[in-house]
Amino acid sequence: MSTSRRHFFFGSLLAGAVPSAGYGSVPSLRALGYKPFYDKLNVAAVGCGGQGGQILNQAAATENIVALCDVDENRAADNFKKFADKPKYKDFRVMLDKEGKNIDALTIGIPDHMHATVALNAMQRGKHVYVEKPLTRTAWESRLLAEAAVKYNVSTQMGNQGYSHESIRTTAEIIWSGEIGEVKEVHVSASPGAHPTGLAKPPGEKSVPSNLDWDLWLGGASMRAYASEYTPYNWRGFFDFGTGQIGNWGIHTMGPVNLALQLGAPVTVERISVENPSGITFPDRAVLRFDFAQRGGLAPVSVFWHDSAYPGEPEAYKVPGMESEDILPLSGNLREKGRGSGSPRSGGGGQARRANLPPGQRTGPGGPGVPVLGRGSFGLQRTPGVLAGNGAVFVGSKGMLATVERGEGVHLLPAERWKSYDLPPQVLTRSPGHMADWIRSCKGGEASCSHFGISGPYTEWMLLGVIAMRVGGKLNWDSKNLRFTNSAEANKYVRPLFRRGWELKL
């Protein structure tokens, strides 16, 4: 199906014309599950601690919270207390069975391996869903959810919040204006995560804590002994549960690249280098290459992913001709040019390298009491001329452009060129905020900016990189048939194996 650029990225207004009394004001829209804008959505949350708790509270700022679900009572404790009068569950299926008539939509912030399972179950019941990034753990699940969103006609959003930022839209407009010419090469990076990497053997068995339902936490994953290294945060380093830094931060830093270059599906993906590979967890570091064919008027492009690279290490990209430049902009820097809002944050970090500190002295995103088991640096010392930290560099035939973090800052390189640059006209609509964008869609408004028709294909191609970290050689990708044409080994990782009773189908 052909789509315009505007429709592909930001959706279209439901059925064309806006009713004179607003969306949700006519019986036909109410019958489709939409509500008037003046009515609040009834939202249930699956995952109430960590990032799941954050998106729960973002929804609670304007909508009704009607039920909470979490398999870990300790992880969810703060929000269980905050919403003490709401029913609590450990099994999302039981919650949907008992509370379904009162639920319009779900926020889902749980380990990657259960994203598709919970989202599909909810969508099949006619519930709108907001699913944290990355959308799924495997490419097959991403395709499944994109198809499910169409079949069940619900509003969806992936939690890659940068897609709603002013800078990501400005990045696309600069590139489309031709300012840096044809882009045939892009380099994208993320700093090391807090999760385990390069493990030679599985972690040792521990007793299951009383606050955790281990069987429900595993869900569709194969049964195994509990280990404290898995919960509540470090699961993301294990292939069976998470997507490493490419899913944790790559889905953010590659967002401007996906949007501006309209990437679609690659034709090949290849592991260029790897350090300390493991069959259990992600490696310590890696460099991947994705090759995309010509897309309409856009030139073929190679996207290089520099996973967990530090300045001074061979995996870090040294930007040609920019040896004295700060490569990444500051977040929120468009305020200098009269656009955007919010307080700028340091784009490349500003903290010293902390990789050699013992776990007890490092901090990570898992929260208090959660050990940092990886190299764990959430801020890197800026090194002129080097792409390090969370960001991207677009290499064009007429110049270079860099973005930072989730696409929350953008500038041309060198800095002198950016100082005198006038931004191009706005051609893309602006977002009211990532959660508000989805809530608007749930009430019959414009489709959200990262609905599954967009985030499904995006996550699908990005997760091919997870496979490339496990399987060497250049892998040829057949997107139509969702398979590699030259590697039976790689094809084993395209879709998950489910425990009996947890299988997924439309």
Structure, explained:
The chain has helices spanning 5-10, 27-31, 50-60, 77-82, 92-99, 115-124, 139-152, 166-176, 214-218, 244-253, 255-261, 415-419, 434-442, 452-462, 464-470, 488-491; strands spanning 42-46, 64-69, 88-89, 105-108, 128-132, 156-159, 183-190, 268-275, 285-292, 301-307, 317-318, 386-387, 391-396, 399-404, 409-413, 474-478, 483-484. Residues 1-28 and 342-363 have low confidence and may be disordered. The radius of gyration is 22 Å and the shape is globular. The protein has 2 domains: 5-163 and 434-459, NAD(P)-binding Rossmann-like Domain (Rossmann fold, 3-Layer(aba) Sandwich); 166-197 and 237-428 and 463-491, Dihydrodipicolinate Reductase, domain 2, CATH 3.30.360. It has a 9-stranded mixed beta sheet with strand order 15-14-13-7-10-9-8-16-17. A 6-stranded parallel beta sheet has the order 3-2-1-4-5-6, sandwiched between helices. A two-stranded antiparallel sheet has the order 11-12. The protein is an alpha/beta fold. 25% of the residues lie in helices and 17% in strands. It has 16 helices and 17 strands.
Q: The CATH topology of the largest domain is what?
A: Dihydrodipicolinate Reductase, domain 2
Cα distance, first to last residue? Answer: 20 Å
Provide the low-confidence segments as ranges.
1-28, 342-363
What percent of residues adopt helix (DSSP H or I)?
A: 25-40%
Radius of gyration: 22 Å
* Mean pLDDT over all positions: 88
Number of strands: 17
Structural class: alpha/beta
CATH level-1 class of the largest domain:
Alpha Beta
Oligomer kind: single chain
The CATH architecture category of the largest domain equals 2-Layer Sandwich
Query: Major sheet: order of its strands?
Result: 15-14-13-7-10-9-8-16-17
Beta-strand content bin: 15-25%
Domain tally: 2
Instruction: Tell me about the largest β-sheet.
Output: 9 strands, mixed
- Helical run tally: 16
Globally, the shape reads globular
